[in-house]
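Readers outside the structure-tokenisation community will struggle with the description of the input data as it stands. For illustration, here is how one protein appears when written out as sequence plus structure tokens:
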Amino acid sequence: MRILELNHVAINVDDVDQSSRFYSEVLGLAPMPRPAFDFPGAWFRIGSAQELHLIGRAPENRSPPRERHFALRVDSIHAAEERLRGRGIDFSAPKPRPDGALQIFLRDPDGHVIELLTPP
């Protein structure tokens, strides 16, 4: 077996509509078609091949630690910072990683930690 790529990340959310607005309006992810599952949810495209799947069930842990997060590479950490400030989103100021990458951490409406980064 050979892993080809990360296909998707799935997270549980309390309110699919509220979380969908966050991921589309705040982070700018494009919604995509979703199969007709018997539970609520929404899917979003990340880049050309990855996806984010929202599952309409309350998260088991209300405050995931920062170590459990997913990261989205952005073209400009400063443009990301401006976008978040403009929308009144709480986040950590850009910090350099030891290898020179720049990182911002924020939480979605359910407390899931998201890292935005630009590579070194």
